[in-house]
């Protein structure tokens, strides 16, 4: 089931904020990202690092993954962030401003086996997507799109201008089995706008979306969790292919439509994701 561990929601929280860390122990996001970079002022970064490590060692988070976003290696805090991350029980370390495979290998070497997640947030990275994804065998585990930084560097008009690029990020990640997460929605008060963005991300093939406020968790899960109709269709496909008369067949007819074994693979994945994401689902929906 580890292959299907949900990553629908990935909430950024500043490690410099003790109240935020305490609140995180009550939040049902799939992934919690303790942030040492953008969300932390320079004079608070050392204390934030210590607080993040202490929080990781204390545990108690409902999130399925605990991730640390560090400062870049070429900053005053980067090397110490990486050393601390490698010695603490984080499930992954997220690094910013990666541009080349050499960057990935350098970070992976510093982390001594801890899975590496990278921000895709520079123009250089966009031109290196497949080469970056090819580092999957060298410790790389995820792409996280940094839409704000990309828009700034490209001088483009925000998310709408980035939409043609996002499928290429997903395709490169999928080619090497990486987790791939959509960027943040900046207006955390506009949950309708967030739901629209999350729906776009799901349609593009992202595993989930990065968040900046706990209020975004529920609509994020609503967008990235298969619907009742999708679940019913998946169960019907799995059941149909399990019939003795369909044993070994590459394609069958189901409800007036042709269904191939590639659809069976997706149906099995849908049900496995639901079973992992929704407590009680597997028992209530035995096939």
Instruction: Using the alpha-carbon principal axes, give the shape.
Output: globular
Count all strands and give the number: 10
- The N- to C-terminal Cα distance equals 17 Å
Helices, by number, come to 14
Task: Report the sheet with the most strands, covering strand number, pairing sense and barrel closure.
Answer: 8 strands, parallel, barrel
Arrangement of strands in the largest sheet: 1-2-3-4-5-6-7-8
Percentage of residues in DSSP E strands: 15-25%
Helix content: 40-55%
Mean pLDDT: 93
Helix and strand content put the structural class at alpha/beta
Regions with little confidence, pLDDT below 50 for 5+ residues:
280-287
Task: Name the helix and strand elements from N-terminus to C-terminus, one letter apiece.
Answer: EHEHEHEHEHHEHHHEHEHHEEHH
**What Rg is obtained from the alpha carbons, in whole angstroms?**
20 Å
Report on this model:
It is a single chain. α10 (191-204) runs parallel beside α11 (217-224) and α12 (228-241) crosses α13. Helix content is 45%, strand content 16%. A hairpin with a 2-residue loop joins β9 and β10. The protein has 14 helices and 10 strands. The protein is α/β, with parallel strands linked by helices. The strands form 2 sheets. It has an 8-stranded parallel β-barrel with strand order 1-2-3-4-5-6-7-8, surrounded by 6 helices. A two-stranded antiparallel ribbon has the order 9-10.
């Amino acid at each position: 089931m580890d292959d299907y561990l949900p990553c629908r929601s990935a909430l950024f929280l500043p490690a410099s904020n003790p109240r935020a860390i305490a609140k995180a122990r009550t939040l049902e996001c799939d992934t919690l990202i303790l942030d040492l970079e953008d969300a932390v002022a320079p004079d608070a970064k050392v204390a934030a690092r210590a607080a993040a490590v202490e929080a990781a060692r204390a545990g108690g988070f409902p999130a399925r993954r605990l991730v640390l976003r560090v400062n870049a290696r070429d900053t005053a805090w980067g090397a110490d962030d990486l050393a601390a991350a490698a010695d603490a029980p984080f499930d992954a370390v997220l690094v910013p401003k990666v541009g080349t495979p050499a960057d990935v290998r350098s970070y992976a070497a510093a982390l001594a086996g801890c899975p590496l997640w990278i921000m895709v947030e520079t123009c250089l990275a966009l031109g290196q997507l497949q080469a970056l994804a090819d580092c999957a065998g060298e410790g790389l585990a995820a792409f996280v799109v940094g839409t704000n930084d990309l828009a700034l560097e490209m001088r483009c008009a925000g998310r709408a201008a980035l939409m043609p690029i996002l499928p290429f990020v997903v395709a490169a990640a999928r080619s090497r089995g990486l987790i791939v997460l959509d960027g943040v929605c900046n207006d955390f008060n506009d949950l309708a706008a967030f739901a629209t963005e999350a729906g776009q991300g799901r349609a593009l093939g992202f595993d989930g979306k990065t968040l900046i406020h706990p209020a975004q968790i529920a609509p994020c899960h609503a967008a990235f969790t298969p619907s009742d109709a999708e679940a019913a269709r998946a169960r019907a496909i799995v059941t149909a292919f399990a019939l003795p008369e369909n044993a070994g067949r590459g394609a069958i007819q189901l409800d007036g439509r042709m269904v191939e074994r590639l659809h069976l693979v997706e149906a099995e994945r849908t049900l496995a994701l639901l079973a992992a994401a929704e407590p009680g689902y597997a028992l209530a929906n035995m096939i």
